[in-house]
């Protein structure tokens, strides 16, 4: 499929990534339909996209007309059947292989035969997701970074059967959305998370074993290595549940104990301390003083 023919995108999952991806596509002239199983997530996505676009307009980063046009290109639905006319679908739901596979089976039946099915997964095998469909050559990883409207990178992941045409169309679409592309083969964690997540996990071990406070760990990595955010702050931003899921995939897929998730990360997730999206993770965003 040539990128010029991508007129309508379906985005599945209206959480932090799906809503950001929908916003980017709408701001670059693509009609977008956003689906979520949770009606509350849909209304939250709708207001967060509107707020974000209105902020860009008020700061003169986007003209009023362009902002209004982008908002007109967005549709929100709780009926997946509305994806029938999508040329390209981007999945951004919970990081679980079983849940994603169930969705890919559904999508494969609903969307037209020429459509490409892309996953924004951080770590799950594209080949596995593709094998649950009857169109493995049209399944690909399209990994946006968080937050999608600001981050310039898209990591494209080729599954074992991804065709050159699917790759070319996904790369062209990514560039049309103003992003720079890197390409990874389909191994656990791909490029970015294979390197980033063990660092975040090690920061948890550094905290867990009492080597240093969370503030000193974050300050150390910010001022010592010029990272814009410390690894624990970044984990809260990404979502501790997402970090834990990725560590589990790295551990299972690469088979080395060095990827075992830190018990403290596991405990926080068990306690519902998922990071900024829940108001509490490593840091407490609801109180002025932080925990631990
Ligand atoms: P999130 O938890 O903010 O949002 C997930 C959304 O998916 C929720 O609104 C939920 O209601 C919805 N959902 C769950 N199951 C569904 C289903 N079967 N059908 C439709 N909607 C469903 O998660 P987030 O952070 O947006 O992550 C989504 C995906 O993006 C994951 O695969 C994650 O690994 C990946 N990702 C996350 C990044 C991050 O920094 N959080 C960065 C890059 C990729």
UniProtKB/TrEMBL annotation:
3-hydroxyacyl-CoA dehydrogenase NAD binding domain ranges (all copies): 9-186
Gene Ontology MF term list: enoyl-CoA hydratase activity; NAD+ binding; oxidoreductase activity, acting on the CH-OH group of donors, NAD or NADP as acceptor
Matches recorded under Pfam families: 3HCDH, 3HCDH_N
Annotated ranges, domain 3-hydroxyacyl-CoA dehydrogenase C-terminal: 189-285
Site annotation Important for catalytic activity: residues: 143
Binding residues for NAD(+): 13-18, 36, 95, 100, 122, 146, 277
Pathway membership: Lipid metabolism; fatty acid beta-oxidation
Residues engaged in binding CoA: 52, 59, 122
Domain of life (superkingdom): Eukaryota
PROSITE patterns listed in its UniProt record: 3HCDH (PS00067)
Catalytic reaction list: a (3S)-3-hydroxyacyl-CoA = a (2E)-enoyl-CoA + H2O; a 4-saturated-(3S)-3-hydroxyacyl-CoA = a (3E)-enoyl-CoA + H2O
Family (UniProt): Belongs to the 3-hydroxyacyl-CoA dehydrogenase family. In the central section; belongs to the 3-hydroxyacyl-CoA dehydrogenase family.
Name of the molecule in the record: 3-hydroxybutyryl-CoA dehydrogenase
Species of provenance: Lotus japonicus
């Amino acid at each position: 499929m040539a990128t010029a023919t991508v007129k309508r995108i379906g985005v599945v999952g209206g959480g932090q990534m799906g809503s950001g991806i929908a916003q980017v596509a709408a701001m670059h002239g693509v009609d977008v339909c956003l689906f979520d199983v949770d009606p509350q997530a849909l209304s939250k996505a709708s207001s967060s996209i509107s707020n974000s676009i209105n902020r860009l307009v008020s700061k003169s980063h986007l003209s009023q007309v362009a902002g209004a046009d982008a908002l007109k290109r967005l549709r929100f639905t709780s009926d997946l059947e509305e994806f029938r006319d999508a040329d390209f679908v981007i999945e951004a739901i919970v990081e679980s292989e079983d849940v994603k596979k169930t969705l890919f089976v559904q999508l494969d039946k609903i969307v037209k035969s020429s459509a490409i099915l892309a996953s924004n997964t951080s770590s799950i095998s594209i080949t596995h997701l593709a094998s649950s469909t009857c169109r493995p050559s049209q399944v690909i990883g399209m990994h946006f970074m968080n937050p999608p409207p600001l981050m310039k990178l898209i990591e494209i992941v080729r599954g074992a059967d991804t065709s050159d045409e699917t790759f070319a169309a996904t790369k062209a679409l990514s560039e049309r959305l103003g992003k720079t592309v890197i390409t990874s083969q389909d191994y656990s964690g791909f490029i970015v998370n294979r390197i980033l997540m063990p660092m975040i996990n090690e920061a948890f071990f550094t905290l867990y074993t009492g080597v240093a406070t969370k503030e000193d760990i974050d300050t150390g990595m910010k001022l010592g290595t010029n990272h814009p955010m410390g690894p624990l702050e970044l984990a809260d931003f990404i979502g501790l549940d997402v970090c834990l899921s990725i560590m589990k995939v790295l551990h299972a897929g690469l088979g080395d104990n060095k990827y075992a998730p830190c018990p403290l990360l596991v405990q926080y997730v068990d306690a519902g301390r998922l990071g900024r999206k829940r108001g509490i993770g490593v840091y407490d965003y609801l109180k002025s003083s932080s925990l631990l």
